[in-house]
Every structure is written in structure tokens, then in C-alpha cells.
Amino acid sequence: MKKLTLFFSAVIMLSLSVTTAMAQYGGGQQQGGQQGQRQRMSYAERQEQRLTQLTKDLSLTEDQVTKAKELNKKYDKKMTDMRNQATTPEERQAQRGKFRELMTEYDKEFKALLTDDQKTKYDKIQEERRQRFNRQGPPNGDRPQRGNRTN
Description:
By secondary structure, this protein is an all-alpha fold. Helix content is 71%, strand content 0%. Helix 2 (43-58) packs antiparallel against helix 3 (62-85) and helix 3 (62-85) runs antiparallel to helix 4. It is elongated and about 75 Å long.
């Protein structure tokens, strides 16, 4: 009886630790419910999600949100067109500089919508994002493959 109790206790502890680990690491289920595959958000979806967060963080007005949405549509088209033109990894690599230029343009146009206080907060948020990105890598999983790292 004592062995049986000990066995069930061990099984319960093991299942709790597995459940906890799965909860912490997403349990293998990614967005879209497909195991092992992460569904990528489109540029427009990422920008919408980001705009929602910035609306809270910067206390954007309705007018600013409307203009930012128009700006997002404009750059969504440009980014999508560029992404569709690149079909090979080499072409995508070559376009990274162009993507950065587009994002710099977007950033300038977005900041033009902000007040001075909002610009200060926005710059702080951007710096925190850069630091997080440098520590963790890109959020979309575009990390270098093993053996291809350039460190």
C-alpha cells in the first residue's frame, strides 16, 4: 500500500511538472493551434497590434490613431510588394537594407503625428524594444540557423 501511494504521488508530481513546463513554453501549440508551426502575422496585423499598444502607452488621440492607420496601410502595401518580389533567401537578404530604410521613413512619418511629450515616450519605447530584440532575437523566429551564425 505504501509503495502504491508513493507511485501515485510520483505520477502526480511528474504530470504537474510537465503541465507547468507546457504552460510556460506554449505546450508545443503555437498560434493557429498547429503544433510545431508558428503562424506569422502579416505586417498589417503586427502594426495593428503595435498601434493598439502605442495608443495606450502614448495616449494617442482619435485623430492620431486614424492618421497612423492610414500610414500603416501605406507602408503595408510597400512592405508586401517588396516581400513578394524577393523569392530566394539571397534576394530577401539583399532587401534587408531596403526594409530598414522603409522602417526609418515610417518612423519619421509616425513621429510627425506625435506631440513632443509623446515623441519622448515613443523614443524610450523604441529603445526598450531594441534592447529586448538584441537580447532575445527577432520575434518572428528569423534567427540564424545553427552553424550559420556570424559571431
